[in-house]
Amino acid sequence: MVDLTRTYDVLVVGGGNAALCAAVTAREAGASVLLLEHAPKAFRGGNSRHTRNFRAMHEGPTKVLTDSYLEDEYWDDLLRVTGGNTDEQLARMTIRASAQVTPWMEACGVRFQPSLTGTLSLSRTNAFFLGGGKALVNAYYATAERIGVDVLYDTEVRALRLDDGFVRAAEIVCRGFPETVRAKCVVASSGGFQGNLDWMRQYWGDAVDNFVIRGTPYAKGVVLKNLLDQGVMPIGDPTQFHAVALDARSPKFDGGIATRLDSVPFSIVVNKDGKRFYDEGEDVWPKRYAIWGRLIAQQPSQIAYSVCDAKAFSLFMPSVFPAIRADTLGELAQRLGLDAAVLQDTVAQYNAAVQPGTFNDRSLDDCRTDGLTPPKTHWARRIDEPPFYGYPLRPGITFTYLGVKVNEQARVLMQDGRPSANLFASGEIMAGNILGRGYLAGFGMTIGTVFGRIAGQEAAKHARN
């Protein structure tokens, strides 16, 4: 039984990858640790349940990674997706640390596998979890419980009482009953506010009614808002979020990775008026998939449609929902609810602009359009081989970028620049320090793992002192 009358060395708020890495690391360092997970046990793990890999620097081939992926290339990839909106010191520290965490993860029971068909473009950069994020989370929980981390499920942290940068207590509701918890140090790993539609509505208006929250519904941003209201320094743009193109038939919450659609680079994408609105072949998919949710969010009624033909259909991971299939473009348009004449004209203009090239589905190729606005700069092939396929797309929100500012010790900073005396952060609640915008596939898990480890180490060290 968990004794809430005791003062723990370290209190971890959250139940996903970052929280678990912090909790296990602090416990391994000799600290007494209590982890509070808002979700019930069956839904523990936050967004981490839906992940499948993390991005890892490595100097040569490993059991599951091919070739090498060195710091400068990793950093350049991050610069490209963020447009420079990142803290270079924290980012490079994270990149370097990613090369060292795999043995620790394996010691915690995490297992890896080679990249699967449909994800081969990531075989050099990303290590895939055997069994996906759910298996990773289960392994960490098993380790945490084995080494003596206390865990409470169905427990929401309503407030962290700050006094001049020092957390005095946590006000919680545990299985419906209010309680107060005290600890020498606190690690906030409670995620963003994407599950709080009213908060998102402040920035996006009624468009949020058409958003799909692909991750946990328990990420309400309660702790984040509480900390910002008490003078913690904010980081990140509140209007920015990690958002992918999701199958529009997905559930409103918690559909996970199976509802994501990867057809965009090998198709054209049109809005509800049947018109293209962005370059589908701008870059390799792992560096661009996270911009498409935001692009679709800016379209009328927040919906779009991916259209391809038989040549492209086998090149991407399918959705959990079947594609909408037709023998003619006119019939496909009708089934998608689009104007047939407009879609046929859009495809005809696109086909006419496609230039000869050598198609390569695993890297940037020379298949492009000429004289078309917007262009398609890679993987442009005529859509002319029936049957034709279509998918309806909605913005699938994964996490928001507004968070708390931290330093290299994962210590939370107050608005005057002073580090908090005993408050640390890891995961999505601080990812905006490194991911100001854009996304690299698997990098959120890297940030959570690295900063979870740092936060756990530093909190345990501070508690001992």
UniProtKB/TrEMBL annotation:
This is FAD-dependent tricarballylate dehydrogenase TcuA. One of its GO terms (molecular function) is oxidoreductase activity. Keywords: FAD, Flavoprotein, Oxidoreductase. NCBIfam families: CobZ_N-term, PRK08274.1. It comes from the Bacteria. InterPro entries: CobZ, FAD-dep_OxRdtase_2_FAD-bd, FAD-oxidoreductase_2, FAD/NAD-bd_sf, Succ_DH/fumarate_Rdtase_cat_sf. Residues 9-434 form the FAD-dependent oxidoreductase 2 FAD-binding domain. Its cofactor is FAD. It holds the Pfam family FAD_binding_2. The keyword Disulfide bond does not apply.
